[in-house]
Amino acid sequence: MSDRIDTEEKPFDFDLGPPDSDPVVVPETDRSGDAPAIPLRPDEGLDKYARVELLKQEREIAAKYHGGPMWGYVVAAFIGFAVWVAMFPLTMFGVVHPLIALVVSTFITVAGYVTCHEAMHDNIAKRGSKDRWMNQWVGEVSLIPIAVPFSMGKVTHLEHHKHCNDPDNDPDYTDEAPNIWAAWYKTWWNRQPRVDGTINRYKRACENLGTPEANKALKQTVYVQLFYLATLFTMAWNGYAIAAAVCWWLPRQLGLSWIRFFLSWAPHHPREGHTGRYDQAYIFKSRIGHFFSMCMETHLIHHLYPGIPNHRTKAAYQEMKPVLEKRGVDCSAL
Question: Where are the compositionally biased (Basic and acidic residues) regions (predicted)?
Fold first, then answer.
C-alpha cells in the first residue's frame, strides 16, 4: 500500500479502491501535536493525521463486508439464463404470453448485469481458486441477454473504475446528461449507430489499451453481435418475429436503458470534475427502492471497495456513514 498515506497500516487482502491522495508519509515524530497540521487539499479542514485515522476506521469497517458466500449469484446467474432461454420456445409455441415473456426477459436482462458485475471484480471466485471457472461462466452467461461478451464488459468496466468521471478516458462518461429525462433519452441515443455513444467509446477504450484482453474483447463482441442479429433474423424469417422481439430484442433495449441509467447516470451525476476518491459516486435515494435500482443508491461504497458484494453495500454504508460524513461526503439522502 505504498500509494497510501497510512503506509504502516496492516495489509488487507481486498481491493482498496482509488487512492486517497498523493503519497504522503506520516512521520512518527510529528504525532506529538506540536507539528502544524498539513491539509491535503486547500478546501479540506482535516489535517493529514485525522485523515489517516479516518481511513483506518473506514477500512476496518469495509473488511467486515468483504467476501462471504457468493453462491446466490451463481445460482441466480444460471437459473436466470436457463429461464431466459426457455422463454424462446415457450413463447414461440404459445405456452407463455408475449407480454409475460417481455417482462420476465427484461428482468433477467437487468439482473444479469448485477451477477456479471460481481464476476467483473472477481468477487465470485478469486484468481487461483479452485472455483475460478465459476467466476468466468457467471460473467459469460449473465451478459448474453444484452449481447455483449464478458470480456468486453470486464475490460471497459475496469477502465471506468480506473478513470472514473474522466471525460476522455472513462468509457461511461458518454452517459452524462443534465437531468433525469435527458439521461433516459441518452440511454437510447447512445446506442444509435452513427453516434459517438457507448459502443464506440467501448471500442475506442479497447483499441487504446491494445492489450491481448482488449483485442480479445473486440473480436468476441463482433461474434456475439453477429450471433444476436442472426438469431433475430432467423426467427423472423421463420414466422417468429414477435417471439424474437419480446424475448431478446426489446428486453435488450429496455434492459440496457435501465442499466445505463441506474448503474451509470444516477450514481455519478454530475460527473464533471468529480474524480476524487469520495466524489466519484454519490449517495442518492431512488423512488423505486434499493432493489429495483440495482442497489445503486450506495454505489459510492462499491467505488471505495469494489470487493464488497452488491447486496452488502447498503449495510456497509450504514456502518461507514459517520466516517464518510467526517470526510465531507453528503450522506443526507440515506
Answer: 1-13
Question: Quick check: is 282 in a domain?
Answer: no
Last residue of a domain, one of 275, 308, 326: 275
* DSSP helix/strand/coil, 310: helix
**Within 13 A of 65's CA, how many CA atoms are on the CB side?**
25
Q: How many domains does the chain have?
A: 2
Are 107 and 207 in the same domain?
Answer: yes
Residues 210 and 268 occupy one common structural domain: yes
Provide the Cα torsion 245, 247, 250, 256; round to 10°: -150
CA 140 to CA 116: how far, in whole Å? 8
Radius of gyration (Cα) for the chain, nearest Å?
A: 22
Domain membership of residue 38 as a residue range: 1-65+288-334
Q: At what angle do helices 132-143 and 98-120 cross, to 10 degrees?
A: 140
Distance in angstroms (rounded) separating the CA atoms of residues 298 and 246: 32
197, 82: one domain: yes
Same domain, 52 and 94: no
The pair phi, psi for residue 231, each rounded to 5°, is -65, -45
Q: 250: which 3 cell numbers?
A: 426489446
Which pLDDT tens digits describe the chain residue by residue (334 residues)?
334 444 444 556 666 677 665 433 333 333 333 333 333 443 456 778 888 899 999 999 999 999 888 999 999 999 999 999 999 999 999 999 999 999 999 999 999 999 999 999 999 998 888 889 999 999 999 999 999 999 999 999 999 999 999 999 999 999 999 999 999 999 999 999 888 889 899 999 999 999 999 999 999 999 999 999 999 999 999 999 999 999 999 999 999 999 999 999 999 999 999 999 999 999 999 999 999 999 999 999 999 999 999 999 999 999 999 999 999 999 999 9
